[in-house]
Write a structure and sequence with these properties.
Elements (H helix, E strand, L loop, with lengths): L1 H20 L5 H15 L11 H12 L5 H9 L4 H8 L2 E15 L4 E13 L5 E15 L2 E9 L4 H4 L2
Length: 165
């Protein structure tokens, strides 16, 4: 009798524990998106040449992989999203993710839709020039095998700031 009670208790405990791991992303959404954006944009100052341009982009592609679903990662690579940081480095600028502020989180059937505002700062390697941009963004976050992943990411960025570097 005690064994049945113990087994029932253990099963109930692990069931409840399992349910808690798939809870809403909440403040984890901000951490996930910030970590992803830092992996996407923030690289050490490097001199970009024709011989290392693709290597730097490939490193960024690998750094963002843990934050994205497989499909979204493939889109990231295909769309050459790593090249914002590469282009900035070509112009001797670093990119810093200053802030990610969650504006709204809405639950959809199988995902959470997150609207957020991101501020990026571009600083010249010699620290003499700094430019900032604040952009509205959206992401969809899904729970994939117990891990929160980004399944869609969109930024309302305009190329003017990159062209002005």
């Amino acid at each position: 009798m005690k064994v049945k009670f113990l087994i029932t208790f253990v099963l109930l405990f692990f069931t409840l524990l399992g349910c808690s791991s798939s809870a809403e992303p909440g403040e984890n959404a901000s951490k996930l998106i910030t970590s992803y954006k830092q992996a996407q944009y923030q690289i050490e100052p490097v001199t970009i040449t024709t011989s290392n341009r693709q290597q730097v982009a490939d490193e960024i592609n690998e750094k963002v992989k843990p934050y994205l679903t497989d499909h979204t990662h493939q889109l990231f690579v295909n769309n050459r999203d790593a090249y914002t940081a590469v282009h900035s480095a070509e112009k001797s600028y670093t990119v810093l993710v200053e802030s990610v502020v969650i504006d709204q989180i809405e639950k959809d059937t199988d995902k959470f839709q997150v609207s957020y505002t991101m501020t990026l700062t571009y600083t010249s390697y010699d620290k003499k020039e700094t430019k900032s941009e604040t952009v509205k963004c959206q992401a969809d976050i899904v729970n994939e095998n117990g891990d929160w992943k980004i399944s869609r990411d969109w930024e309302s960025r305009h190329p003017e700031i990159l062209n002005s570097l």
